[in-house]
Specification:
alpha+beta; 14 helices; 4-stranded antiparallel sheet; MutS, DNA mismatch repair protein, domain I; 5-stranded mixed sheet; 3 domains; 423 residues
Length: 423
């Protein structure tokens, strides 16, 4: 059997380890885009390559105790800004939800305790849990910062699994101090659904004979792999639950290979192996900002984001070949552009690419910009693309300069060298 392990309210649970007095109280972790990277007050950034997940940024500023209260989420006018990245079950009981605005959450739950994120602490605990699980289970896959899969086949007999996962759950709480929920099933996909049903701090096993009764009332959107477009297609076919999906095999499979594979996964007929190591396929950076109209300032900020992302790309030692820039405007307007380029990666060239993409993507010049994102993917190690020989020698020279700049930044910090266009 496969098992799925999910940490309950991870960021809150991690905070409670440092602050036991928060047990049984309504607690939430706030999140606010770190726009200080754009000014002279920029805090030293930490680069995260190890774990991903919702609200787990590639770049984050170091945790400071002075920021760890509601005041950290107030702007210069005293207005509370930011959203909730997670909340405790005590807070959820009052109607508080993830991604809710902090000020809205405080109206629902006036005694809600807001804490600042401490990504370094979260990463440390996630690593500890991974190490602990690896000592108990031969094959462990880390799917995100707070989510793991394990394969018990040939390791634990099916009849022993109920006791095994209960003891595992209790031991994790005792040793790592984190509450987890564990689901078990023949496939990883159904095990993940079982975990959701087991929360909080519970265990649930779904046997093949129980599958159809278990999934029949589960909303289709709760299944991993069903996004907005597939959900819309299912709704148009009057398919709203996983049970209805299983009973409409012909309809679903007629939509193509992806839908056919989806049907197999929902039905428990298809599985994927546990991957103990996974390669990063892309890397990006984004920031939500106060509404910005000045295009010169927008261009300067893109240069700042490009410098940070360039640092991460060089640290990963990869050569991206697909570059993507997206802009979110006020009034819910969006635009994006991308380009494929198979050339040696240099910081100077990357800055030029980002500015070119910005100029092409910025089609709503009368609107204020509220978010900018840059993403790089299709690394040469994962594709069959060959690097262009045009300008190859010049690129090699610039690459040497880029590497020297990288060494200086790694030693003295990301902000020690900046482009003139950032000032």
């Amino acid at each position: 059997m496969k098992i799925h392990i999910d940490i309950d309210c991870f960021f809150v649970s991690a905070t409670r380890i440092l602050h036991p007095e928060l047990e049984n109280k309504p607690v939430a972790i706030g999140g606010r885009s770190d726009t200080k990277i754009f000014n002279k007050d920029a805090k030293k950034q930490t680069v995260n390559f190890e774990n991903s997940g919702s609200f787990v940024p590639t770049f984050y500023k170091a945790y400071e105790e002075s920021d760890d209260d509601l005041d950290a989420f107030k702007d210069e006018n005293g207005k509370v800004r930011g959203i909730l990245t997670t909340s405790s079950y005590e807070a959820r009981a009052t109607g508080v939800k993830t991604t809710m605005r902090i000020d809205e959450a405080l109206r629902l739950c006036p005694n809600l305790i807001i804490k600042a994120p401490n990504m370094t602490h979260y990463q440390k605990l996630s690593h500890e849990l991974h190490e602990f699980l690896s000592s108990k289970i031969p094959l462990v896959e880390q799917a995100s910062i707070d989510e793991f899969y394990g394969d018990l086949s040939g390791w634990v007999e099916d009849q022993d699994i109920p006791n095994f996962i209960k003891e595992l759950k209790d031991e994790i709480k005792r040793v790592v101090k984190l509450p987890v929920s564990i689901g078990a099933a023949k496939t990883r996909y159904i095990a993940k659904l079982a975990t959701t049903a087991a929360k909080p701090f519970g265990c649930k096993i779904i046997q093949p004979s129980q599958l159809h009764d278990f999934i029949k009332e589960i909303p289709a959107a709760e299944f991993a792999g069903i996004g907005k477009s597939m959900k819309a297609r299912l709704n148009s076919a009057q398919i709203h639950t996983l049970g209805e999906l299983v009973h409409r095999r012909g309809t679903v499979e007629s939509w193509g290979p992806y839908a056919k594979d989806l049907y197999q996964r929902v039905s428990g007929l298809s599985d994927a192996p546990i991957q103990t190591q996974t390669k990063r396929k892309s890397i990006g950076i984004s920031r939500t900002i106060e509404p910005l109209f000045c295009r010169d300032e927008l261009k300067r900020r893109v240069h700042v984001l490009a410098r940070h992302l360039s640092f991460a790309i060089l640290k990963l030692e990869v050569i991206p070949t697909v570059f993507h820039l997206s802009i979110h405007y006020e009034m819910n307007q969006k635009s994006h552009k991308n380009i494929s380029l198979s050339e040696i990666f240099t910081e100077k060239k990357f800055h030029s690419i980002c500015i070119d993409l910005l100029e092409q993507a910025d089609i709503q010049k009368r609107l204020h910009v509220i978010r900018v994102s840059i993403n790089c993917s299709s690394f040469t190690r994962d594709s069959r693309k060959e690097l262009s020989l045009i300008g190859f020698n010049d690129d090699k020279k610039m690459q040497s300069l880029t590497k020297e700049s990288q060494k200086i930044r790694e030693k003295y910090g990301l902000d020690i060298l900046k482009w003139g266009s950032e000032l």
